[in-house]
């Protein structure tokens, strides 16, 4: 049975699966746009449209990996119902701070990963 741990774990198996599927879908859309641009079906400038999908993919993947939902962390909530736990509200101010710090770290990691991925993509487009 999973337990809520401030700044460590605020989602269970069902919520993790949803984030994993969201990440896969986001990355798939980004890859589709990149392929369409590479094949000349859409203008190269359309590659900028991949950025929000890449970011969303990283956010979803990191939430799954860390067992931590950014939105739940910001809203002081948790949902471990898919892992035999409970769902509810976080009341302790120290726990809320820990959750919000973890949420900010996940968003920062996703931003850096998106910037690196987009930068590498831009270099590859220039080389092609």
Offer a quick outline of the entry:
The protein has 128 residues and is mostly helical.
What does this molecule look like?
- The structure is a single chain.
- The protein is mostly helical.
- It has one domain (13-127).
- Helix content is 65%, strand content 5%.
- It is built from 4 helices and 2 strands, in the order αααββα.
- The protein has helices at residues 13-38, 50-66, 70-74, 93-127; strands at residues 77-79, 87-89.
- It has a two-stranded antiparallel sheet.
- α1 (13-38) runs antiparallel to α2.
Question: Key terms for this structure?
Answer:
single chain; about 130 residues; mainly alpha; two-stranded antiparallel sheet; 2 strands
The H/E string reads HHHEEH
Spatial order of the strands in the main sheet?
Answer: 1-2
**What is the average of the pLDDT values?**
93
Residue share in helix: 55-70%
Q: Unreliable stretches, pLDDT < 50, 5 or more residues? A: none
Q: Over all CA atoms, what is the radius of gyration?
A: 17 Å
Shape: elongated
